[in-house]
Design goal:
Strand content: 5-15%
Structural class: alpha/beta
Distance between the termini: 32 Å
Helix content: 25-40%
Shape: globular
Number of domains: 2
Radius of gyration: 22 Å
CATH superfamily of the largest domain: Periplasmic binding protein-like II
Length: 465
């Protein structure tokens, strides 16, 4: 669906020691939507959920009310499910009309910040979960605990802990996680076969060896897709940092620790993959790099679950020529780790229609609607992961897109990063990304680049809000 840059530094995951990753392969007011009805099986607390009675103690507005929803989803040429659900919602709640405000993802934080500061925010925003950490501590978002306590559709305990933590501040939820993804390794099965590689790499050493075998610069074919752009390079480096035993900051988020021996080891390995990547792609990003993979010019490619749907929808000529697998670990049998990311529905505290806004995000979060938004249908599959345990545990969840099962299994590799410092995004987009890029471009060694960036990173980390 898209790459994960916005807020990604606040939405990374750290491996739980000793956990093994799973494998991967390629009418209004009614109780459920018929094409996702099977998802209710096995989730007993949500069976026969009536979309017209999700929080009956919270009254609808007594007069016609329009609520605005900011989103970076392309509702015209992309996922039109939101438009269809808004129509169904209006039929259930005739005094509430949903109006959408589209904004490019890379501009969302800037625009939302300006609107909040100006006192005219949208009633609802669909955002990267990382923005919750940026806005909630400043009192800019509605605390949803009271609403959740009155809801028949939303249960705190049903959310995957990592995603619940991403939208929480001081123990309270300020957003409803609506979709998620984990990061895995995509590989070209045709190129692997040609190079005599029988299976995807399981360790760092195997990844490096396979990349070397896949490398054929004379034909502009490369072993691994590597990016040195802001945010991309750090986000896809984090799993290796975690696998090596490193962290971004200390426990209280006051000092960067990524230049530790563990961090340097991970950076030396990751940036060393430059030998098997195309210099022409370093200034690109993971979203643009999908074309090179789809055209068979890159043998291995790290990406989130969004890429599964992207390949199936937009590059059918490559069907049967690629597969996905968990990220390789440092050594055989060592703990796995993956970055995870997701999106959430939030209500800015400065908006004027909190109750109506809650009705809307609660409606979208009902399991049958979450299934439509995240998974789609067999005819039109979507490659996002639901954020609810009951859905992830239900085999029927993946009927529309079986390839997502492995990415869901990967989630058990991670817990939320415990060092979500308020200013970490500044460090991630600035000193850290720059340091990794210097190593990728060969301007400095990985060790020197990380070490040289520490002073500026600590200054950014502790700057006043």
């Amino acid at each position: 669906m898209r790459s994960r840059v916005l807020g990604s530094a606040l939405a990374v995951a750290l491996v739980a020691a000793g956990t093994a990753c799973g494998s991967s392969s390629s009418g209004p007011g009614g109780t459920v939507n018929s094409n996702s009805q099977s998802l209710q099986k096995g989730a007993s607390q949500f069976e026969h959920l009536d979309l017209s009675k999700l929080s009956p103690s919270i009254k609808d507005p007594s007069s016609p009310t329009t609520i605005t929803m900011m989103t970076f989803v392309d509702l015209n040429s992309g996922n039109r499910t939101y438009l269809k659900l808004a129509k169904q919602f209006h039929a259930i709640h005739p005094n509430i009309t949903v109006k959408f405000e589209n904004v490019p993802q890379e501009q969302e934080q800037t625009k939302l910040t300006a609107q909040i500061a100006g006192g005219n925010p949208p009633d609802v925003a669909y955002t990267d979960t990382g923005l919750v950490g940026a806005f909630a501590p400043r009192g800019a978002l509605v605390n949803l605990e009271d609403y959740i306590s009155k809801s028949k559709a939303v249960s705190k305990d049903d959310y995957v802990p990592a995603f619940r933590s991403m939208v929480s501040s001081d123990g309270s939820m300020y957003g409803l996680p609506i979709d998620g993804e984990s990061t895995g390794l995509f590989y070209r099965t045709d190129l692997f076969k040609k190079a005599g590689i029988s299976s995807p790499p399981k360790t760092w050493a195997e990844l490096q060896a396979d990349a070397a075998k896949l490398q054929d610069p004379a034909h502009k074919q490369y072993g691994f897709a590597l990016f040195a752009t802001q945010g991309e390079t750090s986000y896809y480096w984090y799993p290796f940092l975690y696998q090596a035993g490193g962290t971004q900051t200390n426990a209280d988020g006051t000092k960067v620790t990524y230049a530790s021996p563990e961090g340097i080891k991970a950076a030396e390995f990751y940036t060393g993959l430059r030998k098997y990547s195309s210099p022409d792609m370093w200034a690109s990003n993971s979203w643009d790099g999908r074309v090179a993979f789809a055209n068979g010019k890159v043998g291995m490619y790290m990406a989130g679950a969004w890429f599964e749907g992207e390949m199936l929808s937009n590059f059918p000529q490559a069907n049967g020529k690629w597969a996905s697998a968990p990220l390789p670990t440092e050594t055989d049998g060592s703990p796995c780790a993956t970055t995870i990311a997701g999106d959430a529905l939030i209500i800015p505290s400065g908006s004027k229609n909190h109750d109506a806004a809650w009705k809307w995000i609660e409606f979208l979060s009902a399991p049958q609607n979450m299934a439509l938004l995240d998974l789609g249908t067999k005819e039109k599959p979507v490659s996002l992961l639901p954020t609810r345990n009951s859905m992830l545990a239900n085999p029927a969840t993946f009927d529309a897109n079986p390839g997502l099962k492995g990415f869901a299994d990967n989630m058990k590799c991670g817990i939320t990063n415990l060092s979500q410092a308020e200013n970490w995004g500044v460090v991630d987009q600035g000193p850290l990304s720059q340091a990794l890029a210097q190593a990728i471009y060969g301007k400095k060694s990985a060790s020197q680049a990380l070490t040289d960036s520490v002073a500026a990173a600590n200054q950014d980390l502790n700057q006043p809000s």
